[in-house]
Structures are given as structure tokens and as C-alpha cells.
Amino acid sequence: MIRCDARGLLAGWQESGVGGVESSEPLVELRLNDGPELRAGEAFAQWEASLSESYVPLAVDPERDQAFHGWIVRGSMPGFELSTVGASGQRIRRTKSGIAHTDGEFLFVSIITAGFGRMHQDGRIAVVRPGDMVFYDTTRPYHWDLDGSWSQVVARVPLALLGEHVPTDRSALPTAVTVQADSPGGVVAGFFRDLARIQENAPEQATVLAANGVKLLASAITLAGGSVPSGASAQALSRKQVLSFMRARCTDAGLTVDEIARACLVSRRSLYRLFDETGDGLSTVLRRMRVECAQVLLIRDASRSTASIAQASGFASERHFFRAFRVETGMTPGEYRLVTAADSARGEAGRHTA
């Protein structure tokens, strides 16, 4: 199904705006889903075209074996465009070809409101979760990896306008650097998240609030610019980002070194080096993550079979699971379950007699 409409969401729409501030244009809403009217490939092709029209020319690859859905609600604020967008899992790529076919140069600001994503640009990877913010520059290639259903608030700001407020070379912009929700820059992320909500319900009031939006973004960029890593700190951050990706995907039995390296924009050699220098090899870290996942499942569901837990924790077979579990814990899964159950029972008894 496809639906697209433009809507002024406030009765008595006034072109002059409020308090002398130029009024925003009516919001444009687009929704697409797989269904009887559109086959999956057709819906996704229309989605790619809609993303490119709404933002900049983009190439989009769907997540395999997942029903597709997507939506965009966008409008204009003083000095920038503001939208909310969400969809099923996909990779969104900004390619050299897309850059060549773009009129205008922009900085994008994304605030994740649901789901999990990784923004890749300029050799860095920003791992972003709900409440986090990230910047990316449309004049250089980038790509998003968005796993499962997700949503974002997105601001599109002309780089020329931003340059009036940020005294820095474009190459020094803090692209693909996570601005966490609880950081000083997170205050700005919260403002734009709330502004997008107000834009849908009270667009004229949102226009008034947005009057200093570009300056606020410039402040957040200045704060984030101090955290762009280099040298040893860049290596430490890279390892942290690789660990975040592995933790998110460790229960996938098909996860390979090549896939980890590709997702984190590092070579196989660099990937192994990141872990060898800490004393724990890549395979050891992945095994430990899977065993930790299995430990949680063993305690949570005492009746669940070890074969089922092995599969849910990312092990290729029950035999591999038993071997890895004994290496990490010194006991079998069954023994671990008995020991933790006994410890829990003693704790309960102690509380009742205290």
C-alpha cells in the first residue's frame, strides 16, 4: 500500500507565521508497505525513490527475509528541514554516483528514536541507540546499517548556512561520532526530537521554537568536535565499536570475521590486531559473548533444552556449545544450571530466616 499526502495540521493556517517568523510549509507524509497492491520489490523501489527525493540521492538494500514497511513525515523549519522516518531493516548508501547527481551540500543530523543503527563515514563508525545523535556530510560517501525496525528524527542543514556558525574546516566536522543522549550534546538531540513531535501537532509553534535551531546544532557540533578520536584513542574507539557490533550479532551462528570487518569498515588484519593486542583473540571474545548469553537463558528458563539454548546463543551445534561452555566456566551447562539453582535456593532460605 502507498499513501502520500500534504497536510496543514493547524486550522486557520497563516502564511505570515507567528511573531514575524516565516511559517513552515504543510507536512508531507508518505507510507509504504508490502501488500496486495505492491509486491515487495516494487514497494522497496518506491521507497528508495522516496528517500532520495526527501533527502539526497541514495541507494537502499533491504534486509533479507523481512516484510517491508516504511514511512516519512517531513516539513520545513527556518534554515533546515525536519522529518521523522522509520522502516524495516536496511542498508542506506550514499555513493559517489549519488553525490554527483545532487544539487546542494548538506549536513544531516539523525537522532535515533527506536531500533539500533551504525553510521559509517570518514573511516569512523558511530553506534547509535535511542536518544543518541550523529552527524554526516552529504558531500562524502557514507552508509547506514539499520537492523530490524527503526525510526529517526532527521534534520537537513545546508553546509553553507552551518558554516556561518561553525568556525571549522568541513573535513574536521565530527561525522560518524556518537553524541550520546546523556552528554551535553544530548540536550540538543532532545530538543530536535521534541521539535519533530511539536511540528506534527502544532507546526506554527514549532516554527517559533526552531528559530535558533541551526545555532543549537552548531553548538552541538562544536562540543562533539572535541571528541573526534585519533591515534591510540581512535584504536580504542574502534575496538569498542567492534565489540558493540559483535554483542548485537553474537547470537547469529552465521556471523563471520569477514562480516564483522565489513560492517565495521576495517580489514581482517586490523580486526585481528585490535584484539590480539589486548590478549583476547577475536574468537575468544565471540565465544565468551555467546556463553554469557547462554548463561542467562539457562537461568531464565530451567525447562528449556540445552539444544535450544545452544541455537539461541549462536552456537553451530550442541557439541560446540558444551565445549565452549566448559572452556569458559569449567562446568557443563547442566552443572551450571544446578549450581545456580542451588545458590538461588540458599539465598532465598537465608532471606526467610534473617
UniProtKB/TrEMBL annotation:
This is HTH araC/xylS-type domain-containing protein. Keywords: DNA-binding, Transcription, Transcription regulation. InterPro entries: AraC-bd_2, AraC_XylS_family_regulators, Homeodomain-like_sf, HTH_AraC. PANTHER family: ARAC SUBFAMILY, HTH-TYPE TRANSCRIPTIONAL ACTIVATOR RHAS-RELATED. Residues 240-339 form the HTH araC/xylS-type domain. The lineage of its organism: Bacteria, Bacillati, Actinomycetota, Actinomycetes, Mycobacteriales. Pfam families: AraC_binding_2, HTH_18. The keyword DNA-binding applies. It comes from the Bacteria. It comes from Nocardia rhizosphaerihabitans. Signal peptide: none annotated. PROSITE patterns: HTH_ARAC_FAMILY_2.
